[in-house]
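In this supplementary section we document a worked example of the pipeline. Step one takes a protein sequence of length 376 as its only input; no multiple sequence alignment statistics are reported here. Step two produces a three-dimensional model, which step three serialises into structure tokens for compact storage. The input and output of this example are shown verbatim.
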Amino acid sequence: MNGVPANPGAWITTTARNRAIDRIRRRRALAEKTEVLRREAEADAGAVTAADLLGMDDEMPLVDDRLSLIFTCCHPALAMDARVALTLRTLGGLTTPEIARAFLVPEPTLAQRLVRAKRKIRDAGIPYRVPPAELLPERLDGVLAVLYLVYNEGHTASGGDELGRRELSAEAIRLARLLASLMPDEPETLGLLALMLLHDARTAARTSEAGELVLLEDQDRARWDRSKISEGGAVLERALGAGRPGSYQIQAAIAAVHDEAATTGETDWPQIALLYRELMAFAPSPVVELNQAVAVAMTDGPALGLAMVDALAAEGRLDDYVYLHATRADLLRRLGRRSEAAAAYERALALAANATERRFLERRLAEVRTGESRPN
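The serialised model returned by step three reads:
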């Protein structure tokens, strides 16, 4: 088989089981980084000793300092959201407000999660210790979530003047490449790498020469990085070939459908809608529902998509999520309901912290207010 399968959804089956990774025997000293982590741990938790921290397996399974420390922090004794949040705060380069936005929770709620995680580390005497190779699989989900959220913040920053933070997305891709080479039999590891590459391929076209946001439908596809698309497609094919589907593989398949379309009009939106339905089975969330509504709108018209978005909005789970209101505004704009669209754009603007996205929303708001917008 060459390239991504013509119908990626056909590869997404209903079975999902884990396989143990082959034991990886590599040595690497982590003295400098582990000393930093030791000091932070002792300051925050009060119960982690240098002996605990440095009690590493002689057969070091990892060869990168940062990746080793991410595995160290993603301790299975902590709840998944706590281990991911703590790792992002300690090692991922994200602030508490940025992590809170990633988890769609208020900042005080996220801060309390971090406090509780540190308290559990202290009270339970959980050691910060690099795990041996046979224990890596039980920490893999947390590590993948950390890399995914770091990449997302790099791809579209939650605040600041620039659309993205290239240093974060580049580091996430670097670590994902390394992880995929260390754990090549884990399809979700490959799926995450493919997802990052397929999204990152569009980076140059996401902003104009003036630094303004360009939506996917309006991007100059000649500016897309075809080498990354090719690499991402090949990695995705390897992942899907394992026959053990997961959420990152499905998201990568969605990205591949976008990247394979020569023009916006050739995008296979029914296929994308199908893949989002499959994604809901693996990783149900209101954000996935919102994306599915967009795909339905592109497949069956904005009225049906708007009905789905309105139902989601009525639940209140995404009330403070800027993209819910921006999506709703765009669908109302497409339907010619300008006054309602203006109100939705105003709500999105009240929540947007990224300057590039704010300028885009301001332009759209001005359009619907002056009647320049036309239904699509």
